[in-house]
Structures are given as structure tokens and as C-alpha cells.
Amino acid sequence: MEYRRLGKSGVQVSALSLGSWVTFGQQISDDVACDLMRVAYDEGVNFFDNAEAYASGRSEVVMGKILHEMGWPHETFLVSSKVFWGGELPNLKGLCRKHVIEACHASLRRLQVDYLDLYFCHRPDPDTPIEETVRAMSDLVHQGKVLYWGTSEWSAQEITQAHAIARECHLVPPTMEQPMYNLFGRHRVEREYARLYAEYGLGTTIWSPLASGLLTGKYNGGLQPGTRAVLEGYDWLKEKITRDAKEKGGQLQQLEKLAKDLGLSLPVFAIAWCLKNPNVSTVILGASKVTQLIENLQAVGAQAKFTPDILKRIDEIAAV
Ligand code: NDP
User: Fold this and answer.
1) What is this structure's pTM?
2) Which of 69, 83, 223, 238 has its CA 20 to 30 A from that of 140?
């Protein structure tokens, strides 16, 4: 495993980490979730990603039980949560001080840990002043309940605002962002955030490196049984995957051919490409099977195959 600093902070995250969206507490059994975390940990993965919203809290319950049963010292891993979607009632959603603090306490209970290593604002909340959220996050850090706080899918302007408020009010600024990043979704990480890396030392924990499985090539022949695209309650994802598979079929074939020429499977190629970006601190993997995870973990070693010529060819196929 390779380890990278989370932006300019001193903490080190494994270049590949493991997330639980769709899978834990929903698509897969708790036994498979346990196997995934065990394999990941044994291979050097030190960051496990979660959120209050995932499977309405069940994902954190499953992960918390596994962390407890495994007995791994907290010093050997980082665990995250995200606050935003806690429920439908007023104050169970968004980033007001009340929800940020209460959601953190609830995640700590579900995950059975004393502190969250990383805590993210899952989306920007237009109904709460950014200062209120920055203050709440900063307080959680001062209380030792959160070690590093960050944002997810905030605009560059919102992140800049959060930093300005933190500086002015002597609060703890956000350390990291969790944006989507993959061969078909490059703009935010490569263009919109370009100034933030040097300016604030922003770290990134990037999500959906395989665009929910599209970048494995498995949807080239249509929807596949047993995948998240056909899960109940994910009709929006099914529509997106169906549309993207049609629109991007030509690009997928070209990428698959390039991957094959390098002796790589398409998923390993797509994940290794994400790792080549020096502003990516960690690529969060998703997997519903242990075989998928074992395959995807090869991406660390595959980075060496990406010469400048190969990267240029990729840019020609999948432009920013
Ligand atoms: P990916 O885009 O990598 O999709 C993962 C899924 O692709 C797997 O669950 C599996 O789905 C399929 N897959 C993975 N590897 C293979 C393989 N080798 N061969 C075939 N199929 C494969 O990542 P996710 O979308 O899961 O995102 C990763 C993590 O990022 C999440 O778990 C979560 O922690 C985080 N995230 C954060 C978000 C945010 O807003 N901050 C939003 C979304 C995710 P299948 O069961 O269909 O085979």
C-alpha cells in the first residue's frame, strides 16, 4: 500500500480506502462487509468511509460492529462520517449547529468509536449560514470528537468562504473535500478546485472512481443482474447508468483497449488513473464482492504503467 498526506495535514491515508455507500447494511450481508474490511485492512487500507445517510444509519451500525469485533486499535485506522441527510423532520437535515452536533454524537454511537477521524459536511446547506457550520465543526474538533473536518461537493467558492470565516474568527478550517472524480467526471477536481490545493493545502478523498461500475465495462452489454444498477430504490442510478453506457460506449471501448494493451483490467486502469493525480489523497473504493476489492487493490502497483504518452492518449479519449 502507498500512503499519502491528507492535503497539507500531517495525517497519512492509504492511497486506496474503502467506502460503504449502497453496500453495507443494504446490498451485501454483514459477513461480506466484514470480509471486505478484513481484506482491505490486511492489504494496508487504513481509511473506512461512512455517512449518517448510508442505509439510514445501518451502514455505520454494521461498520461499528465490525470495528468492535476486529479489535483493531484506533491508532491503526481512520474512520469517517458525513452529516447532512439524517431524516425528514426539521433539524434532521442540513448543517445547522443542532444537527451537526447531534449527528456527530449519533455516528459516534453507531460506529462505536470515541472520535471520528474525518467528518464531512455531505453537501452545502443553502439554509444555514456557513459561519454557523464552520463554528459547529470547529467546536467538535476542539472537543476532540472530530480530528479533521471537511466538505463534500462544496463549490470552490463555498470552500474559500469557509476558510475566510475560519481565519477571521480563529476557527478550525476544513482540511479536505470529498468530490466525485473519475475518467468521466474530471472538471471539479482538475479545474474548479485547481487553486485550492496550493492556497489551502486541500486534501481530497475522491468517490465513485468507477462511476458506480460503469468504468468496469460491465454495462456495455446492458444492465447486469446482481449489480447496484438493478437494486430496488435506485431507479435514478439505473437510469443514469443506462444513459451513460449508451452515450459513452465508444469511449469505454477505447479505454478498455488501452487498458488491455497495458495488461490491465478496465477497473484497475480507471482507479490507477485517479491515483496518478497528485491532488488526490485517497481513492475511496466501493465493492460488493471480495473479488472486486482484491482486483481493485492492484491499482496502486499499476500506476507505474501510466507514462506521459499514455496519459495524453487518455486525455484524447476522455477530455476534462
Ligand atoms: P465505484 O464507482 O468504484 O463503484 C463501486 C461499485 O462498482 C461496486 O460496489 C460494484 O458494484 C462495482 N465494482 C467495483 N469493482 C468492480 C470490479 N472490479 N468489477 C466489476 N464491478 C466492480 O465507487 P462508489 O460509487 O461505491 O463510491 C465509493 C465510495 O465513495 C462509497 O462507498 C462512499 O464511501 C463514497 N461516496 C461518497 C459520496 C459523497 O457524496 N461524498 C457519494 C458516493 C460515494 P456492483 O455491486 O454493482 O457490482
Assistant:
1) 0.98
2) 69
Residue 25 gets which letter from DSSP? Answer: I
Strand partners, 182: 185
Rounded CA gap, 181 and 209, in Å?
Answer: 6
Q: How far is CA 42 from CA 39, 116, 130, in A?
A: 5, 21, 39
With a 6 Å cutoff on the Cβ, whether 216 touches ligand 1 is yes
Q: In order of start, what are the domains of the chain with their CATH numbers?
A: 3-318 (3.20.20.100)
Residue having the nearest C-alpha atom to atom 3 of ligand 1: 210
**CB burial readout 9-32, b (16+ within 10 A) else e:** eebbbbbbbbbbbbbbbbbbeeeb
Q: CB of 212 closer than 6 A to ligand 1?
A: yes
92 grid coordinates: 434532521
Is 54 a catalytic site residue? yes
Cα(210) to centroid of ligand 1, in Å?
7
- Summarised one tens digit per residue, pLDDT across range 50-78 is 999 999 999 999 999 999 999 999 999 99
Q: Is the CB of 218 under 6 A from ligand 1?
A: yes
Tell me which DSSP letter residue 54 carries.
G
Q: What is the pLDDT of residues 208-243, one digit of tens each?
A: 999 999 999 999 999 999 999 999 999 999 999 999
Q: CB under 8 Å to 59, separation ≥6 — which residues?
A: 20, 21, 23, 24, 25, 26, 50, 51
Question: Residue 214 carries which DSSP code?
Answer: G
Residue 123 alpha carbon, nearest atom of ligand 1: 40
Report whether residue 17 contacts ligand 1, using a CB cutoff of 6 Å: no
